[in-house]
Every structure is written in C-alpha cells, then in structure tokens.
Amino acid sequence: MPHPHIRRLAATQDICGEGCVWHPQQNAVFWTDINRGLLHCCSLASGSIETWAFDQPVTAVALTTDQNLLALILGGRIVLWDSRTHQETDVLFRLPGWPALRCNDARVDPAGVLWFGTMQNNVRPDGSTAQVTAWQGALYSLAPGGEAKQWQSGFGIVNTLAWSSTGETMYFGDTLANCLYRGSFDPVRSRIANREVFFAGFPRGLPDGSTIDSEGHLWNCRFGGSCIARIAPDGSIAAIIDTPVRNPTTCAFATGEASTFLFTSAADSAQPNGLDGSLFSLETNVRGMPSTPLRL
C-alpha cells in the first residue's frame, strides 16, 4: 500500500515529470515535463502553479548563485533562464549529436559545477516516447565559463547524480542496466575516480532520479516499481516508500523547520492511474541536504 501521508501537490498530468528542485528563496518547487517541453513551478505557500513551454524537451532544473536565474537542461542545450522575465538569457552548452542524443538528469556538485547525463533521444517530435535501444549515454561536467568534459560513456540512460554530505563520494546510475554506481570524488577540483557498483539488480523497477538526506542515505525513485528506496551508505536498503503511482521519476527535499520530500512521476500506458504525472510530497523525520547552486 502507498505511504498514507503522501499528498498530491500538483495534478499536471505530465507525460514524464522530472527534474524537480526546491527554490528556498521563493519557497517553490520547479520541475519539468520532458515530453511536452514544459517547466512548472508550484508555490509551497499558496499552492499556485505556473507553467512555461520551450522548443525542446526540458529534462532538469538547477539553482544558480543568482537567485533569479535557473539553469535549465533542455534536450540539446543548457541555458540560463530568468524567473522574472521568463526568458532565456544565455546558452551555456550545446550538445553535439542532438537530436539523435539528448541531455537527461543534471545536478550541481559541492564546488558549484554542473554534472549531467546524456542518452539516446527517446522523445519523438509529437511528444510521444520511443524505446531506448542504443547505449550511447555519457556522463559530463560543465564548469563555469568552461567546456563540457566527458568523463565516462557507453551507458543506456545516465540518471541519479548525487553527492555524499562530505562531498567525497559521487553517485550516478544507468537506468537500463538497473545499476547505481559510486566513485571517490574530489569536491574541490570536481573529479570522479574509482567507479564501482553501489546498488544493482533490485527487482522493483529501474533506478531513476535520486537525492541525499543529511544522514547520507540515497533516496532513489524506482521507475516501474511503484516505490522509492532509501539506501544506506553501505548499499543496504534502509526503507521502502510505496507510492500511489507506478513510475516515480525524481525527487528533492524542501528543507525548513521540517523536511518535505518531493517527487515527480510519469504516465503509465500499461496501467493508467488518475494520479500519474503528478507532483507529490511527503513529510519526513529526516532532513535533506540543500541543493548546491551552479556557480556563475
């Protein structure tokens, strides 16, 4: 049974809701619908929702050191977007190979450097979803004012970008391989090394987006598994949170006096559910780690 305290915040009927991040200054959560090229914003104070459309899939959102600017990861480019004027102000990166390839999950490391994954583009021009058949995904970093650096390649779908509370361990995953990896991380020079398997073969769904709590546990959304796994630093399962939707996709914490756990979801064509594609929240007794902003 789904956790009894999970609450639906926004019924946006997303095809593939993704990329959620809590904006502390605005007390709002931003998230996307990849397939429809949408960016959403929900005020946690009023519950009001705004939506903006783009010319490419929108796959992830990151805060920046300018509280009015967000970094938006689109299918073929990464841009700065002004939350006041609702306009793109700068292009930080263009993906070679777009539209055959596209960007996917993205997060900012402890030094303020953006990390993102790529994959075979599975979004058709009409917004429907195609099957991923090629292992063309790669892991990249993008330093402020610099060129993107490819670290590792040959993945199906690069997902789950997160760092331990010390910044000395980085987590990332490959959805198609049903595998989460970890590597030793230099939080000053933004370098990953010594990749090893951290959590693999879990039978409930496939690993999608994740976030870290203050106790060092990774909360991993299990696409197709109707749950979120809370994984301890040693790779053991600390808890399973059953969800009211089959496809939870990614998650974030809103941390204030208490911690609110937020997660997005995707549609399920095999077993449609009126809650699919919504944004959800769950009050927790553990605090999340604040999102590091992209250093501009």
Brief overview, please?
0% of the residues lie in helices and 53% in strands. It is mainly beta and 296 residues long.
Could you describe the 3D structure shown?
This protein has 296 residues and is mainly β. The protein has a single domain, classed as Neuraminidase, CATH 2.120.10.30. The chain contains no helices and 24 strands. A hairpin with a 4-residue loop joins strand 16 and strand 17. It is globular, with a radius of gyration of 17 Å. The model has no long low-confidence stretch (mean pLDDT 96).
| CATH topology title | Neuraminidase
**Mean pLDDT over all positions:** 96
- Indicate the overall shape: globular
* Count of alpha and pi helical runs: 0
Strand content: over 45%
Radius of gyration: 17 Å
How is the biggest beta sheet arranged? 4 strands, antiparallel
Order of helices and strands: EEEEEEEEEEEEEEEEEEEEEEEE
Q: What's the CATH superfamily, by name?
A: TolB, C-terminal domain
Secondary structure tally: strands: 24
Oligomer: single chain
Q: Residue share in helices? A: under 10%
Structural class: mainly beta
Instruction: Please tell me the total number of domains.
Output: 1
Strand arrangement, major sheet:
1-24-23-22
CATH class: Mainly Beta
Given as residue ranges, the uncertain stretches (5+ residues, pLDDT < 50) are none
Could you give the distance between the termini?
Answer: 44 Å
CATH architecture: 6 Propeller
